Amino acid sequence: MKIVTYNVNGINARLPNLLRWLEETKPTVVCLQELKASQDKFPVEAIAEVGYGAIWHGQKSWNGVAILARGTQPQEVRRGLPGEVDEDIQSRYIEALVEGIHIGCLYLPNGNPAPGPKFEYKLRWFEQFTQHAAQLLEMDVPAVLAGDYNVIPTELDVYNPEYWVNDALYRPEVRTAYQNLVAQGWTDALRTFYPQQRIYTFWDYTQNAYRRNIGLRIDHILLSPHLAKRLHSAGVDKEVRGWERPSDHAPTWVELTS
C-alpha cells in the first residue's frame, strides 16, 4: 500500500502533471494540499478517469485539501479540526477511511511573518491539530497524518539553517510543537528511512533552487504505531519537481506491507 502527500500548488494549473504522475506511479492513497480551487472547481471527473475516487475541502484561491483513493471512494470522517470557529475556518484538514486506515490530510498554516497574527494563528492551529492527533492515538486505530506541515523539524531538513532562524517554518516554537506531536507516539516515516541524509520535498521557484538542490523538508507522513510496524519504504518523487510547469513540492510517499 502506497500513501503519498503532494502539495500541488493549484490543482487545475498542475492537473496535467498530477494525472501523468497518477498514471505512472498508481499510488493507493494521495493526500493533496493547496488546491487553490473552490468546492465546485475540483476536477473530480478528470481524476475519476484515471481511476481515483476523491473527497475534497476546497477554498477559492487559497488552501484546500483532498484525499484520493485508487479504485474506491474514500469514506469521509471529518472536514476541519475539532474546535474550529465557523468564521475562522480555512480549508486545511480532511480525514477519511481507506481500507480501514484513518487518513488525515493537512495543510498547516505558513505563519509568516513571524512574530505576528499569522504566526499566532499557526500555533493555535497546530495545537488543535496536536489534540486531534492524540485522540486518534487514544482510539487505537491505524492512522496516517500526511501533508504539508510547513515545519522544518531539524537542521538536517534545510539547506542553510542560519538563513531560516527567524522564519515561521523554523522558529523554535514550531519545531518544538512538531517534536511534541511526534513524541505522542507517531513515526516520521521519511526520517526513519533517512536518519542522517539531507532529503528535501520542496524547492523554491527562485535561485534555480531545484537544479542546485537548495531545498526544504516540510512535507511529512506520520504513522501511528499500528502502521509503523508495517513501514516498508519511503521516499520522494523528486523528478516530478523537474517537469514542465511543476509545483514547488514533490510527491512524498511511504509503502506499507499488507
UniProtKB/TrEMBL annotation:
GO MF annotation, one: double-stranded DNA 3'-5' DNA exonuclease activity
Q: Where is this site: Transition state stabilizer?
A: 150
Database matches in InterPro entries: AP_endonuc_1, AP_endonuclease_F1_CS, Endo/exonu/phosph_ase_sf, Endo/exonuclease/phosphatase, ExoIII-like
Please give the name of this protein.
Exodeoxyribonuclease III
The record's listing under NCBIfam families reads: exoDNase_III, xth
State which gene encodes it: xth
Give the classification, highest ranks: Bacteria, Pseudomonadati, Bacteroidota, Cytophagia, Cytophagales
Q: Site annotated as Interaction with DNA substrate: where? A: 249
Q: Which residues form the Endonuclease/exonuclease/phosphatase domain?
A: 4-249
